[in-house]
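agent> fetching stored inputs for the magnesium ion docking request
agent> found them:
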Amino acid sequence: MEDDVPEYPDDYRSGYVALIGEPNVGKSTLMNAIMGAQISIVTRKPQTTRTMVLGIFNSDEAQILFLDTPGLISPKYLLQKAMMQAAEQAIADADIILHIADLPKLHKYEYKVDERLVALLRESGKPCLAALNKQDRVADAEKKEARNALESTGVFKAIHPISALLNEGIDPLLDELVTLLPVHPPYFPPEHLSDRPERFFVSEIIREKIFEKYKQEIPYSTEVVVVDFKEKKDVDYIAADIIVEKESQRKIVIGAKGAAIKDIGTKARADIEKFLGRKVYLELHVKYREGWRNDKNWIKRFGYGE
Ligand SMILES: Nc1nc2c(ncn2[C@@H]2O[C@H](COP(=O)(O)OP(=O)(O)OP(=O)(O)O)[C@@H](O)[C@H]2O)c(=O)[nH]1
Ligand SMILES: [Mg+2]
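agent> prediction call returned; pasting tokens
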């Protein structure tokens, strides 16, 4: 009896959906809303997501593999270049592209749609949908204008106004995505939410706390590396290095009498415990690696780029 092998209907669908858009439009918020769990970190700052993050969504009829990506920018240093490679890779891997647009921003910029983006989507030759996000922040007339602007590009099969934050408009979007997916058995066992190890999510949660705490320079100069992770009976022991680019930044992240790093550690630990469902002892060290974000060896060691 092969009762360990799950059965799927013949018309089961499965495939990859790349979430593509400018920074800060709500790509990660949307993926988390669909997943009902924080898979990708979210902050108020642009360029929060740095690599492709997979979210595996299962229903009775389909498995949708969402690829969250870094927001599209013109790269100025190597880390940003690697970030854009991740977005390009997601487009190449995808069966469907879901473009996320920011309604308040479209309104602010008089409904101008980025032509480079439209060209990128068109060249992909893949079915494209658009989600007009943050509808909670605009009036109906503004939604209509934005829809017209995106419709006039001719690349989108459908346009869905949504609020990822308030979980509005998501079910019709999911239904439409399923109809466009190829008929295919699931790629992953149903209990998997993502393909990354726990260490990745732990380092991202710590990075999120640093993004939230500092304004300009520090978040973009910071990387987090989990250097030790031991599962123990009562409490997991996790040690992580926070890497910045300069000694002056290291001092800021430590803070007077260690107050800043203590605050980061307390907030990160609470979220890590929630994520792992276990008690955690978290040890943080702050180090600097001069100019790491423009150094190809460091970028590679930190897991960016190919
Ligand atoms: N009002 C409102 N805010 C939203 C909505 N969706 C996302 N946000 C907010 O927008 C900000 C950016 O959200 P993210 O999900 O990090 O955006 P992103 O596109 O993943 O950004 P990058 O990773 O930097 O490319 C956060 O402060 C979110 O809370 C929404 O539907 N309505
Ligand atoms: Mg993001």
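agent> quick read of the result: The longest strand covers residues 236-244.
agent> awaiting further instructions
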